[in-house]
Design brief:
CATH topology: Ribosomal Protein S5, domain 2
Number of strands: 10
Radius of gyration: 19 Å
CATH superfamily: GHMP Kinase, N-terminal domain
Number of domains: 1
Helix content: 25-40%
Low-confidence stretches: 251-255
Mean pLDDT: 93
Distance between the termini: 64 Å
Strand content: 25-35%
Structural class: alpha+beta
Strand order of the largest sheet: 1-2-3-5-4
Largest sheet: 5 strands, mixed
Order of helices and strands: EEEEHEHEEHEEEH
CATH class: Alpha Beta
Number of helices: 4
Bound molecules: adenosine-5'-diphosphate
């Protein structure tokens, strides 16, 4: 993260950001569950200019076998950014950043899945970023938890996640790419609204304690909104499934 060059103004005199949002406003978020036939569970998410797909397989036999845990399942997440997801072509394959993001998302999800119900197995979560515009780790985690629910994997709850940061000296919710590049702090956070439990929190940059308080307030409110979008995606998914069963039943009757 670099400092703000003097010619780049991220927030105008009316408190409006370069994409027209207020400081505590989130980018538009859409989630669709059950988008892939071959996966046990899946979700597609669009959040501002981010486009992310998550697919879940399992619980299934854990490979490599030496990673099996006789007491519980392990969650293995693979986060990947497509070569065409950013303005310069991204070199394909894992790099330090994607390995780190895969690890923190695996750990966040292990805290909500009832892993002790499935000893020796692995729950594999694939996150593919099709288009990136800052906040892809929180977008990936938000999508992955919907995909896990779509796979019918028992969990404590869904995990909404969002990044809060600092741009032009002000705390802003849900950083876009310019704010991520030229802002002075980035704080991705995932929390379960029902319990207030935090399952992911990272921080890059500098904030005072008062600013952290404001940031956490914004994040808490945003996570409640994201949670509603996640639940709505699952409701629509089950409504479609129920409709499909009815249609199948009627065609059986006619046959
Ligand atoms: P997050 O996507 O969770 O905010 P970062 O803060 O590491 O994670 O990245 C911020 C943004 O920088 C990404 O969303 C993406 O738009 C961009 N970015 C990340 N890695 C690359 C890369 N290798 N090439 C070009 N842009 C990238």
């Amino acid at each position: 993260m670099s400092g703000t060059p003097s010619d780049i103004k991220l927030i105008d005199e009316n408190g409006i950001r370069i994409d027209g949002r207020k400081v505590d406003e989130m980018r538009p978020l859409k989630i669709e569950a059950g988008v892939l036939k071959r996966a046990d569970g899946s979700a597609y998410l669009e959040w501002g200019k981010n486009k992310v797909i998550a697919a879940v397989y399992g619980p299934r036999e854990c490979h490599p076998r030496h990673m099996q845990n006789p007491a519980k399942a392990i969650v293995q997440c693979k986060y990947n950014m497509m070569s065409f997801s950013v303005s310069d072509r991204k070199r394909p394959g894992p790099d330090r950043r994607s390995i780190e993001i895969s690890k923190i998302i695996s750990e966040a999800l292990e805290n909500v899945v009832f892993t002790e119900n499935f000893p020796r197995t692995s729950i594999d979560v694939y996150i593919e970023v099709l288009q990136a515009n800052a906040g892809t780790r929180v977008a990936g985690l938000t999508a992955a938890s919907v995909a896990l629910a779509d796979a019918g994997i028992p969990m404590k709850d869904l995990v909404p996640a969002v990044a809060v940061g600092k741009a032009d000296g002000q705390i802003v919710l849900d950083l876009n790419k310019e704010e991520d590049n030229y802002g002075s702090a980035d704080l991705p956070i995932a929390m379960i609204p029902r319990t207030g439990e935090v399952v992911l929190m990272q921080m890059d940059g500098h904030m005072t304690m008062e600013e952290v308080d404001i940031a956490l307030g914004y994040a808490t409110k945003a996570c409640r909104e994201i949670y509603e979008v996640q639940k709505d995606a699952l409701r629509r998914r089950y409504a479609v499934q129920a409709g499909a069963v009815d249609e199948d039943d009627s065609s059986d009757e006619e046959a």
